[in-house]
Amino acid sequence: MKLTIGCLYPDLLNLYGDRGNMRCLVKRLEWRGIGAAEAPVMAGERVDFNEMDIVILGGGSDREEELAGRYLREQREAVREYVENGGVMLAVCGGYQLLGEYYETNDRLVEGLGILDVRTRWEPRRLVHNIVLESPLSGEPVVGFENHGGRTDIGGHKPFGRVVCGYGNTETSGYEGVVYKNVIATYLHGPLLPKNPQVCDYLLGKALRRRFGESIRLGSLPDELEHRANGSMVKRCRSRRFWL
Ligand code: GLN
Questions:
Q1: pLDDT band at residue 212, thresholds of 50, 70 and 90?
Q2: pLDDT tens by residue, 132-187
Q3: Does any ligand 1 atom lie closer than 6 A to the CB of residue 20?
Q4: Separation CA 12–CA 200 (nearest Å)
Q5: Which pLDDT belongs to residue 242?
Q6: For ligand 1, is residue 111 a contact (CB within 6 Å)?
Q7: How far is residue 141's CA from residue 34's CA, in Å, rounded to a whole number?
Q8: What percent of the chain has pLDDT over 70?
Q9: Nearest residue CA, atom 5 of ligand 1?
Q10: How many of the other CB atoms lie within 10 Å of CB of 109?
């Protein structure tokens, strides 16, 4: 049994170590004796989505996001097909925005892939904070760090979680991210997965069952360190006025 973990354009989209999400997915497979291959795809290279079991799309500054958008739009139909056929994906911040209709700043309009029915508008005041969510995808709080100028309207989509500390999609909606089919799209950097092992295993479970059948179950791992890292972030946020 082996899964291939792709990471699109880590040379452009690697803000706050988003590429580390790929390492985390691979390690948690290896610790369970399951084969794993890292498949970074650099800007301009073509992606073979048939080969991918999980695809990571990280975040970047506006400039890098615009460039990544150009490369991604060349493969729009392949990305859409992958997502609509239940392909597993984690899209973070700039990557989240690029799955939507557009990212509009004061001086440009970056066209997205239009796979998610979401729209992002930039505002000059950046939303920068540690963030804690309650999410149906994790039995413990989901923790991370957000830094974005974009405010994302998620229309009728299901959010990734409810914000208990921090800003989230729009600062005022009270919700963060989107879950659509087997895609998690979120503003959470960190990277996200090392401190949120249950979110990591959610993605691994989806990918394993998609590739090898519905009967596959993931065994548990001794996650003491991960839980301590998660708990210390929750504690740090709780001591601040931003706790809702
Ligand atoms: N450039 C986007 C914004 O500022 C995304 C930033 C990011 O990926 N952290 O909203």
A1: very high
A2: 999 999 999 999 999 999 999 999 999 999 999 999 999 999 999 999 999 999 99
A3: no
A4: 23
A5: 62
A6: no
A7: 27
A8: 98
A9: 94
A10: 10
